[in-house]
Amino acid sequence: MGSLSVDTSNLQKSSSSATLVCTPVLGTTVNEMLVDMARAKEIGADLVEIRLDYLTNFNPRFHLQTLIKQCPLPTIVTYRPKWEGGRYEGDENRRQDALSLAMELGADYIDVELQVAHEFNSSIHGKKPDNFKVIVSSHNFHDTPSSEAIANLIARIQSTGADIAKIVTTASDITDCARIFQITVHSQIPTIGIALGERGLLSRLLSPKFGGYLTYGALDADTVSAPGQTTVKDLLELYNFRLIKPDTKVYGIIGKPVGHSKSPLLFNAAFKSVGLNAVYMHFLVDDVEKFFNTYSSPDFASGCSCTIPHKEAALKCMDEVDHIAKKIGAINNIVRRPDGKLIAFNTDYIGAVTAIEDGLRALEGAKPAPGSPLSGKLFVVLGAGGAGKSLAYGASQKGARVVVANRTFERAKELANKVGGKSLPLCEVENFHPEEGMVLANTTSVGMKPNMDQTPIPKHALKHYCLVFDAIYTPKDTRLLREAKEAGAAIVYGTEMLIRQGFEQYKNFTGLPAPEELFRQLMEKHA
Ligand code: NAP
User: Fold this and answer.
1) Is 82 exposed, middle or buried (0-12, 13-18, 19+ CB in 10 A)?
2) Of 6-20, 85-99, 318-332, 425-439, minimum mean pLDDT range
3) pLDDT (tens digit per residue) in 289-308
4) Cα 258 from Cα 61, distance rounded (Å)
5) pLDDT-derived band of residue 1, with 50, 70 and 90 as boundaries?
6) Sheet harboring 191-196: ordered strands across?
7) What pLDDT is recorded for position 5?
8) Which of 151, 232, 284, 484 could disulfide-pair with 489, CB 3.0 to 4.6 Å?
9) Which range among 310-324, 341-355, 487-501 shows the weakest confidence by mean pLDDT?
10) Least confident of 14-23, 227-236, 412-421, 449-458
11) Residues with Cβ within 8 Å of residue 358, at least 6 apart in sequence
12) Pairwise CA distance, residues 282 & 497, whole Å
């Protein structure tokens, strides 16, 4: 599959038809459906999809009348048979009769499957009310076919006389969404394009960018009707769905897993606060190279954060790497320049080092000395993984004398050599105190949730340190930091590194100062 070079300029000119948000109602009784319809309106959906196949007792004329007349929003009526992934197992004529009846009783849309669409559309020919539309849908629960195969499918759907085409595929890779976007942009009739599954999330969120007719949003996390479906609340509040337009720049966090990341919450709120035409999403990526090769247009993947396990692999896809990030051997922040080139940074070390410097300055009182307070300090780094490298390089760059202590001593030696420091086995750090007033930075995962009773260094050894930093942020208040405080040291939380590296990312993405207060409030609220 080539790169995603989709011309959205026509969409920009005719963006009057905003992508709709549709909430499926999946009650097993009419009353449950009526309650859900009212909630759908309350939470901001534009229309509802009535899934007749979910009803346990269905009396077509009586129930359809109630559901359609009492719905506070426009309706799509769907009666999905088992052979297309639904629940209905009965007679086919009865099913199609119920759909015709829905049309007669005032449904705004009905959704009928491609397999029977010719037959169905002929049966209603000449009877269609004004403004009533037939959605002809095709579902593939195995994969996302080639662009050519999807285009053929659209042509078949169009030949049935469909008003709206609906293509549902299954994403086995995030790049599958690109083929969905090519269809929604280029299709001659309004088209709904969805790739199912967590890897298909983009196809749902970016429908407005690529001209999709509608996207589905669940009432809440317990009532999703298809894999990978998000809630209306997340669509509207987390991802600012209503603000996404064809020319919106797309940012996101690349990782695997990535769904837990709070970064979309922070960046989308920040973009909105200054009116930036940009959206930030979760990118569940298996193959970083394929991701960047596919999403290579300037307004796509305009900037990315990068997390486990791609911090090292992503390096190979970059055109330029900031010199410290190159030394650290890991990147967490990628910016696509207007010429399309990818430039990478490591903002972890800036976040950690500035937080520790501010902690030391606070110790120095009202008149801190000029220059970095880390200069000349003995700086003990516990751990030699990704965070350990950031701290060791960051501190040595500020003139600290670095000592690396790690469980696997070989890794400690390797890192210490690279930063011109000394190394220790982790077990020896307890008795290591050549001087007083040292700085300690824990970057091991010892003490992280769920092992919150653990600590990487005994409490009695902490009295030799003037400041202790812990990279762990779950929990915020680790046993190490509690004991350091009791031993009289100043402490710096891992959350401070996390938030400050976010400030740096925002600056790199936008060229603007980060809305620090907003980031802090959101982190506090959603910790
Ligand atoms: P990593 O690359 O996997 O490195 C893990 C380090 O922890 C290695 O040095 C490893 O030692 C050591 N370690 C693991 N289990 C240990 C144990 N039982 N006893 C002693 N040492 C042990 O992970 P990372 O990305 O550096 O992350 C490390 C921690 O930093 C995590 O808690 C992570 O959440 C946190 N972090 C925080 C931020 C932030 O913004 N605050 C940013 C990045 C990371 P070996 O070499 O012997 O395996």
Assistant:
1) exposed
2) 6-20
3) 999 999 998 888 789 999 88
4) 46
5) very low
6) 191-196, 164-170, 133-139, 109-113, 75-78, 47-51, 20-25, 214-218, 230-231
7) 62
8) 484
9) 310-324
10) 14-23
11) 492
12) 21
Q: Mean pLDDT lowest for which of 143-152, 298-307, 374-383, 434-443?
A: 298-307
Task: Map residue 346 onto helix, strand or coil.
Answer: coil
Tokens standing for 410? 């070989």
The Cα 87–Cα 59 span in angstroms is 16
**For ligand 1, is residue 346 a contact (CB within 6 Å)?**
no
Q: In a 3-state reduction of DSSP, which class is residue 92?
A: helix
**Contact status, residue 150 vs residue 193, Cβ threshold 8 Å:** no
Helix (H, G, I), strand (E, B) or coil at 505: helix
Pick the catalytic residue from 133, 209, 249, 311.
Answer: 311
pTM above the 0.85 mark? yes
Cα gap 284→291, rounded to integer Å: 10
Task: Flag the least confident range among 72-81, 164-173, 330-339.
Answer: 330-339
Measured from the Cβ of residue 140, the count of other Cβ atoms closer than 10 Å reads 17
Q: Which of 348, 377, 422, 464 is catalytic?
A: 348
SS3 content of the chain, % helix, strand, coil (to 5): 40, 20, 40
| Choice from 253, 348, 430, 443 to test ligand 1 binding pocket (greatest atom count within 8 A of CB) | 443
Q: Is residue 42 within a helix (H) or strand (E), and if so which, with residue range?
A: helix 30-43
Give the three-state DSSP class for 170: strand
Is residue 191 within 8 Å of 166, Cβ to Cβ? yes
- Indicate which residue's Cα is closest to atom 27 of ligand 1: 387
Q: What is the pLDDT of the chain when averaged over all its residues?
A: 95
Q: Is the peptide bond before 81 cis (omega within 30 degrees of 0)?
A: no
- DSSP of 291-343: HHHHS-STTSSSEEEE-TT-TTGGGGG-SEE-HHHHHHT---EEEE-TTS-EE
For residue 166, indicate whether it is catalytic.
yes
The pLDDT score that the predictor gives to residue 6 is 63
